[in-house]
Protein backbone atom coordinates (compact mmCIF):
# COMPACT_ATOMS: atom_id res chain seq x y z
CA UNK A 1 0.00 0.00 0.00
CA UNK A 2 1.28 3.43 -0.94
CA UNK A 3 1.78 5.82 1.97
CA UNK A 4 1.75 9.62 1.72
CA UNK A 5 4.00 12.29 3.17
CA UNK A 6 3.37 16.03 2.91
CA UNK A 7 6.56 18.00 2.31
CA UNK A 8 6.50 21.76 2.81
CA UNK A 9 9.26 23.31 0.71
CA UNK A 10 9.05 26.79 2.23
CA UNK A 11 8.11 29.78 0.12
CA UNK A 12 8.51 29.47 -3.65
CA UNK A 13 11.94 31.14 -3.60
CA UNK A 14 13.24 28.18 -1.57
CA UNK A 15 13.05 25.87 -4.59
CA UNK A 16 16.72 26.37 -5.42
CA UNK A 17 18.72 24.20 -7.75
CA UNK A 18 20.86 22.77 -4.96
CA UNK A 19 17.69 21.03 -3.72
CA UNK A 20 17.26 19.25 -7.05
CA UNK A 21 17.79 15.70 -5.70
CA UNK A 22 14.27 15.90 -4.33
CA UNK A 23 12.85 16.61 -7.79
CA UNK A 24 15.16 14.09 -9.38
CA UNK A 25 13.70 11.38 -7.16
CA UNK A 26 10.22 12.34 -8.33
CA UNK A 27 11.30 12.58 -11.99
CA UNK A 28 12.92 9.14 -11.90
CA UNK A 29 9.85 7.62 -10.29
CA UNK A 30 11.76 6.62 -7.18
CA UNK A 31 9.09 7.64 -4.69
CA UNK A 32 6.59 5.50 -6.60
CA UNK A 33 9.15 2.68 -6.74
CA UNK A 34 9.25 2.59 -2.94
CA UNK A 35 5.50 3.10 -2.49
CA UNK A 36 5.52 6.58 -1.02
CA UNK A 37 3.57 9.50 -2.46
CA UNK A 38 5.12 12.91 -1.78
CA UNK A 39 2.73 15.84 -1.76
CA UNK A 40 4.65 19.07 -2.32
CA UNK A 41 3.35 22.18 -0.58
CA UNK A 42 4.72 25.68 -0.01
CA UNK A 43 4.66 28.33 2.70
CA UNK A 44 3.33 31.83 2.23
CA UNK A 45 6.56 33.49 3.29
CA UNK A 46 10.18 32.66 3.96
CA UNK A 47 12.18 32.76 7.14
CA UNK A 48 15.46 31.81 8.77
CA UNK A 49 14.18 30.95 12.25
CA UNK A 50 11.86 28.41 13.81
CA UNK A 51 9.01 30.93 13.50
CA UNK A 52 9.36 31.53 9.76
CA UNK A 53 9.09 29.76 6.46
CA UNK A 54 8.28 26.07 6.30
CA UNK A 55 9.05 24.99 9.86
CA UNK A 56 5.73 26.07 11.48
CA UNK A 57 3.82 23.77 9.13
CA UNK A 58 5.88 20.82 10.36
CA UNK A 59 5.46 21.83 14.00
CA UNK A 60 1.67 22.08 13.69
CA UNK A 61 1.38 18.85 11.72
CA UNK A 62 0.16 20.48 8.50
CA UNK A 63 3.24 18.95 6.86
CA UNK A 64 5.18 15.80 7.74
CA UNK A 65 8.60 17.04 6.73
CA UNK A 66 10.54 19.85 5.16
CA UNK A 67 13.96 20.64 3.73
CA UNK A 68 15.98 23.31 5.46
CA UNK A 69 18.92 24.32 7.55
CA UNK A 70 20.07 22.31 10.57
CA UNK A 71 21.24 25.65 11.97
CA UNK A 72 17.57 26.40 12.68
CA UNK A 73 17.22 23.08 14.49
CA UNK A 74 20.30 23.88 16.57
CA UNK A 75 18.87 27.25 17.61
CA UNK A 76 15.50 25.64 18.30
CA UNK A 77 17.20 23.11 20.59
CA UNK A 78 18.96 25.84 22.54
CA UNK A 79 15.65 27.69 22.93
CA UNK A 80 13.94 24.47 24.13
CA UNK A 81 11.56 24.41 21.17
CA UNK A 82 9.61 21.44 19.76
CA UNK A 83 11.62 18.28 19.18
CA UNK A 84 12.75 18.36 15.55
CA UNK A 85 15.16 15.94 13.90
CA UNK A 86 17.34 15.99 10.80
CA UNK A 87 17.12 12.51 9.27
CA UNK A 88 18.55 12.67 5.74
CA UNK A 89 21.26 14.80 4.13
CA UNK A 90 20.42 17.19 1.30
CA UNK A 91 23.22 19.77 0.86
CA UNK A 92 26.61 18.80 2.24
CA UNK A 93 28.57 22.04 1.84
CA UNK A 94 28.20 25.78 1.49
CA UNK A 95 26.38 26.48 -1.82
CA UNK A 96 27.44 30.15 -1.98
CA UNK A 97 29.99 31.48 -4.47
CA UNK A 98 31.95 34.62 -5.16
CA UNK A 99 31.60 36.19 -8.60
CA UNK A 100 33.39 39.15 -10.19
CA UNK A 101 33.45 41.19 -13.37
CA UNK A 102 36.44 39.22 -14.65
CA UNK A 103 37.74 35.69 -14.16
CA UNK A 104 40.43 35.16 -11.51
CA UNK A 105 42.20 31.83 -12.04
CA UNK A 106 43.90 30.56 -8.92
CA UNK A 107 41.77 32.62 -6.54
CA UNK A 108 42.82 32.45 -2.88
CA UNK A 109 41.06 34.07 0.09
CA UNK A 110 43.85 36.61 0.52
CA UNK A 111 42.73 38.12 -2.81
CA UNK A 112 39.84 39.61 -0.81
CA UNK A 113 42.17 41.85 1.16
CA UNK A 114 41.14 45.48 0.73
CA UNK A 115 38.17 44.55 -1.50
CA UNK A 116 34.44 45.32 -1.40
CA UNK A 117 32.07 42.35 -1.35
CA UNK A 118 28.33 42.85 -1.74
CA UNK A 119 26.29 40.26 0.14
CA UNK A 120 23.53 40.17 -2.46
CA UNK A 121 21.32 37.55 -0.80
CA UNK A 122 21.56 38.76 2.81
CA UNK A 123 20.89 35.17 3.92
CA UNK A 124 21.88 34.54 7.52
CA UNK A 125 23.73 31.23 7.17
CA UNK A 126 25.73 32.47 4.19
CA UNK A 127 26.67 35.76 5.84
CA UNK A 128 27.75 34.02 9.05
CA UNK A 129 29.80 31.48 7.10
CA UNK A 130 31.52 34.17 5.04
CA UNK A 131 32.38 36.16 8.15
CA UNK A 132 33.75 32.98 9.71
CA UNK A 133 35.87 32.39 6.60
CA UNK A 134 37.26 35.93 6.76
CA UNK A 135 38.14 35.43 10.41
CA UNK A 136 39.91 32.15 9.63
CA UNK A 137 42.19 34.03 7.25
CA UNK A 138 42.65 37.10 9.46
CA UNK A 139 40.68 39.19 6.97
CA UNK A 140 37.79 40.39 9.11
CA UNK A 141 39.11 43.95 9.24
CA UNK A 142 40.48 43.86 5.70
CA UNK A 143 37.29 43.27 3.70
CA UNK A 144 34.31 45.59 3.36
CA UNK A 145 31.13 43.49 3.38
CA UNK A 146 28.16 45.47 2.10
CA UNK A 147 24.54 44.31 2.54
CA UNK A 148 22.68 43.73 -0.72
CA UNK A 149 20.27 46.43 -1.82
CA UNK A 150 17.34 44.05 -2.23
CA UNK A 151 17.55 44.44 -6.02
CA UNK A 152 19.57 41.42 -7.11
CA UNK A 153 20.01 42.45 -10.73
CA UNK A 154 21.12 45.96 -9.77
CA UNK A 155 23.68 44.49 -7.35
CA UNK A 156 25.05 42.16 -10.03
CA UNK A 157 25.25 45.10 -12.45
CA UNK A 158 27.18 47.08 -9.85
CA UNK A 159 29.76 44.29 -9.63
CA UNK A 160 29.96 44.00 -13.41
CA UNK A 161 30.64 47.75 -13.67
CA UNK A 162 33.27 47.72 -10.95
CA UNK A 163 31.36 49.51 -8.20
CA UNK A 164 32.02 46.44 -6.05
CA UNK A 165 34.75 43.85 -6.40
CA UNK A 166 32.76 40.69 -5.70
CA UNK A 167 29.19 39.45 -5.42
CA UNK A 168 28.42 36.87 -2.74
CA UNK A 169 25.41 34.68 -3.49
CA UNK A 170 24.29 31.12 -4.21
CA UNK A 171 25.06 29.69 -7.62
CA UNK A 172 21.30 29.33 -8.03
CA UNK A 173 21.12 33.14 -8.11
CA UNK A 174 24.43 33.72 -9.90
CA UNK A 175 24.17 31.15 -12.69
CA UNK A 176 22.03 33.25 -15.09
CA UNK A 177 24.54 36.13 -14.89
CA UNK A 178 27.49 33.75 -15.17
CA UNK A 179 26.01 31.81 -18.10
CA UNK A 180 25.33 35.06 -19.98
CA UNK A 181 28.89 36.31 -19.41
CA UNK A 182 27.88 39.28 -17.24
CA UNK A 183 29.79 37.89 -14.28
CA UNK A 184 32.49 35.28 -13.77
CA UNK A 185 32.55 32.72 -10.98
CA UNK A 186 35.83 33.04 -9.09
CA UNK A 187 35.38 30.78 -6.04
CA UNK A 188 33.08 28.25 -4.43
CA UNK A 189 32.80 28.60 -0.67
CA UNK A 190 32.22 24.85 -0.30
CA UNK A 191 35.88 23.79 -0.15
CA UNK A 192 36.85 26.97 1.70
CA UNK A 193 34.36 26.40 4.54
CA UNK A 194 34.61 22.61 4.71
CA UNK A 195 31.97 19.89 4.75
CA UNK A 196 28.86 20.74 6.75
CA UNK A 197 25.18 19.74 6.66
CA UNK A 198 23.99 23.00 5.11
CA UNK A 199 20.52 21.59 4.45
CA UNK A 200 18.75 18.40 5.45
CA UNK A 201 15.34 16.80 5.53
CA UNK A 202 13.67 17.59 8.85
CA UNK A 203 10.64 16.24 10.74
CA UNK A 204 9.21 16.13 14.23
CA UNK A 205 10.63 13.28 16.30
CA UNK A 206 7.19 11.81 17.02
CA UNK A 207 6.11 11.97 13.36
CA UNK A 208 9.28 10.12 12.33
CA UNK A 209 8.31 7.36 14.71
CA UNK A 210 4.61 7.28 13.78
CA UNK A 211 5.27 7.13 10.02
CA UNK A 212 8.59 5.32 10.09
CA UNK A 213 7.97 3.00 7.08
CA UNK A 214 7.03 5.99 4.90
CA UNK A 215 10.10 7.94 6.02
CA UNK A 216 12.35 4.94 5.32
CA UNK A 217 10.87 4.74 1.81
CA UNK A 218 11.41 8.47 1.32
CA UNK A 219 15.02 8.27 2.49
CA UNK A 220 15.65 5.25 0.26
CA UNK A 221 14.34 7.16 -2.77
CA UNK A 222 16.51 10.18 -1.97
CA UNK A 223 19.57 7.97 -1.51
CA UNK A 224 19.05 6.40 -4.92
CA UNK A 225 18.53 9.84 -6.49
CA UNK A 226 21.79 11.03 -4.91
CA UNK A 227 23.64 8.08 -6.43
CA UNK A 228 22.14 8.84 -9.85
CA UNK A 229 23.00 12.53 -9.53
CA UNK A 230 26.66 11.90 -8.85
CA UNK A 231 27.01 9.43 -11.71
CA UNK A 232 25.62 11.76 -14.42
CA UNK A 233 26.72 15.08 -15.82
CA UNK A 234 24.98 18.43 -15.43
CA UNK A 235 23.26 18.25 -18.82
CA UNK A 236 21.61 14.91 -17.99
CA UNK A 237 20.63 16.17 -14.54
CA UNK A 238 19.18 19.38 -15.97
CA UNK A 239 17.06 17.40 -18.41
CA UNK A 240 15.53 15.43 -15.54
CA UNK A 241 14.74 18.37 -13.23
CA UNK A 242 13.99 21.14 -15.73
CA UNK A 243 10.17 20.92 -15.26
CA UNK A 244 10.62 22.12 -11.66
CA UNK A 245 12.60 25.13 -12.90
CA UNK A 246 10.42 26.10 -15.83
CA UNK A 247 11.23 29.82 -15.57
CA UNK A 248 14.95 29.28 -15.11
CA UNK A 249 17.18 29.79 -18.21
CA UNK A 250 18.22 26.41 -19.64
CA UNK A 251 21.90 27.35 -20.07
CA UNK A 252 22.01 28.70 -16.53
CA UNK A 253 20.49 25.51 -15.15
CA UNK A 254 23.24 23.41 -16.71
CA UNK A 255 25.95 25.87 -15.64
CA UNK A 256 24.66 26.08 -12.08
CA UNK A 257 24.28 22.33 -11.64
CA UNK A 258 27.74 21.79 -13.10
CA UNK A 259 29.23 24.23 -10.60
CA UNK A 260 27.52 22.44 -7.73
CA UNK A 261 28.60 19.01 -8.96
CA UNK A 262 32.23 20.08 -9.23
CA UNK A 263 32.30 21.86 -5.87
CA UNK A 264 30.88 18.93 -3.90
CA UNK A 265 27.76 20.73 -2.71
CA UNK A 266 25.32 17.87 -3.30
CA UNK A 267 25.20 15.27 -0.54
CA UNK A 268 26.69 12.02 -1.83
CA UNK A 269 24.30 9.98 0.31
CA UNK A 270 21.70 10.37 3.05
CA UNK A 271 24.19 10.15 5.94
CA UNK A 272 24.83 13.24 8.07
CA UNK A 273 28.31 12.76 9.50
CA UNK A 274 28.86 13.65 13.13
CA UNK A 275 32.12 15.48 12.37
CA UNK A 276 30.42 17.60 9.70
CA UNK A 277 27.56 18.44 12.06
CA UNK A 278 29.99 19.37 14.83
CA UNK A 279 32.07 21.50 12.45
CA UNK A 280 28.93 23.41 11.46
CA UNK A 281 27.94 23.85 15.10
CA UNK A 282 31.41 25.18 15.91
CA UNK A 283 31.23 27.65 13.03
CA UNK A 284 27.82 28.88 14.15
CA UNK A 285 29.01 29.20 17.73
CA UNK A 286 32.14 31.11 16.79
CA UNK A 287 30.08 33.57 14.76
CA UNK A 288 27.59 34.12 17.58
CA UNK A 289 24.52 32.43 16.08
CA UNK A 290 24.59 29.72 18.76
CA UNK A 291 25.23 30.12 22.47
CA UNK A 292 28.52 28.67 23.62
CA UNK A 293 26.85 27.86 26.95
CA UNK A 294 24.45 25.24 25.55
CA UNK A 295 25.96 22.39 23.47
CA UNK A 296 23.95 21.14 20.49
CA UNK A 297 24.49 17.36 20.66
CA UNK A 298 24.45 15.41 17.43
CA UNK A 299 22.38 12.60 18.95
CA UNK A 300 19.61 14.98 20.00
CA UNK A 301 19.21 16.54 16.57
CA UNK A 302 20.18 13.88 14.02
CA UNK A 303 18.36 10.58 13.53
CA UNK A 304 20.37 8.24 11.33
CA UNK A 305 18.28 5.17 12.19
CA UNK A 306 16.33 5.46 8.92
CA UNK A 307 19.57 5.39 6.95
CA UNK A 308 20.67 2.42 9.06
CA UNK A 309 17.43 0.62 8.23
CA UNK A 310 18.08 1.12 4.51
CA UNK A 311 21.58 -0.31 4.71
CA UNK A 312 20.27 -3.24 6.74
CA UNK A 313 17.63 -4.00 4.10
CA UNK A 314 20.31 -4.06 1.42
CA UNK A 315 22.43 -6.69 3.18
TrEMBL record:
Keywords: Signal. InterPro entries: SsuA/THI5. Its main location: periplasm. Residues 19-235 form the SsuA/THI5-like domain. It is found in: Periplasm. Belongs to the bacterial solute-binding protein SsuA/TauA family. This is NitT/TauT family transport system substrate-binding protein. It comes from Winslowiella toletana.
Amino acid sequence: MTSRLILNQGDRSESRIYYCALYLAESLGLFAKYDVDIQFTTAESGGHTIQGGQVPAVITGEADLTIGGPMVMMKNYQQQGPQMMCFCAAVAANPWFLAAANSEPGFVPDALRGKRVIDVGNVGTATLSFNWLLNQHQLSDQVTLIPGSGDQQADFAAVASGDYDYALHSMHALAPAVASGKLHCVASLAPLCGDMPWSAYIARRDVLQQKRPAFIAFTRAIAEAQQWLLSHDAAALAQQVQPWYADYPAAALVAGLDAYLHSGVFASGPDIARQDFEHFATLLTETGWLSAQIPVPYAALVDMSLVGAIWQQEK
